[in-house]
Specification:
The chain is of the alpha/beta class and 340 residues long. The chain is built from 9 helices and 17 strands.
Length: 340
């Protein structure tokens, strides 16, 4: 087992500056470790999975289909987001449905907690743009969301402020960095780690970014859909992200079918989206293990954090806390950690 006596001068090298690696670097740097965060891409991070993410912080909604561990880690992450980035918007989230998905809506209500049912008037009071659009909704007041392309640079700045170093365009492997006998290496490469973890697979999530000033939303709206959950997520400057599909494919395009479903869903949420300007199409590949659950793998002083699937922004802070607790105090979370 790794020596767990705290050594702030012991170097910690983290590979991958996406959401998983950024949170690892931040918490380790704040704890006094000498942190270097390596990223093979440039500072724009346009090739990272995080660049295409929705940024949903919705552990209660995810309880409909996810294992209890996702809810447990997700709830802990909410506390860490609030602590480290207090400006994170926690305006809650909404779930709505059209009449043909009524049964799915009621099932969703039964399988999730910490929500309250709003009638049409209550929904209109909360989101005036949705007045007259739905007869009721589920409101999850404790949930939040972040804009990945804004919050990731904020995390990088927090890492530097805590004394960490970030090296972009640094294409290194865990083997390269493990040569320092006193160093700790944390591999957060996502699908890039398949050279050592061939069981990882990519699950494509597609998104469309649109712009309109005719709709104002303060929180994400989840629309029940027969194939997958569809979100309308507000961003700054009159932008809305439409997403996200979950497709067992590893190409990075957006299919015509997905585009039609995403745009059609937005139109049914509010007709004004039909006049919105399309800003961007894109997709990212989420790293997933066969069970779709996250894993912290430990082999001596080499640690891997991977398999965050479609819950990257929700789970990353809690996973970083678990890793730090292991390194400093030897704490093991048996649901997440595997020691070789």
């Amino acid at each position: 087992m790794l020596q767990t006596t705290k050594r702030p001068d012991s170097p910690v090298s983290i590979i991958g500056a996406g959401i998983a690696g950024a949170w690892q670097a931040l918490l380790f740097a704040q704890a006094g470790h000498a942190v270097t965060l390596h990223e093979r891409g440039d500072e724009a991070m346009t090739d990272a999975t995080s660049h295409w993410a929705g940024g949903m912080l919705a552990p209660y909604c995810e309880a409909e289909v996810a294992e209890p561990i996702i809810s447990r880690l997700g709830l802990r992450s909410l506390d860490i987001w609030r602590r480290e980035l207090p400006d994170t918007p926690f305006n809650g989230s909404l779930v709505v449905a059209h009449p043909r998905e009524r049964n799915d809506f009621e099932r969703f209500a039964c399988m999730t907690e910490d929500h309250r049912r709003l009638d049409a008037a209550g929904l209109a009071e909360l989101e005036p743009s949705l007045e007259g659009r739905f007869r009721d909704a589920l409101f999850f007041p404790a949930e939040g969301h972040v804009e990945p392309r804004r919050v990731l640079p904020q995390l990088h700045e927090r890492i530097r402020a805590a004394g960490g170093t970030i090296r972009f365009c640094s294409d290194v492997t865990a083997t390269d960095l493990a040569k320092d006998p006193d160093g700790i290496v944390i591999d957060c490469r996502g699908l890039g780690a398949r050279d050592e973890q061939p069981e990882l697979r990519g699950v494509k999530g597609e998104m469309i970014l649109i712009e309109t000033d005719e709709v104002q939303l303060a929180r994400p709206v989840r629309l029940m859909h027969p194939r997958w959950p569809l979100y309308v997520i507000p961003r700054e400057n009159n932008l809305f992200m439409l997403g996200a599909t979950s497709i067992e494919a590893e190409d990075t395009g957006v299919s015509v079918r997905s585009a039609l479903e995403l745009l059609g869903a937005a139109y049914t949420v509010h007709p004004a989206f039909g006049e919105a300007r399309i800003v961007e199409f894109g997709s990212g590949l989420r790293p997933a293990y066969p069970d779709n659950l996250p894993r912290i793998g430990i082999r001596g002083r080499r640690i891997s954090v991977n398999g965050l699937y479609r819950h990257g922004f929700l789970l990353a802070p809690a996973l970083a806390e678990l890793t730090l607790n292991y390194v400093e105090r030897g704490q093991i979370d048996n649901e997440v950690m595997q020691c070789a």
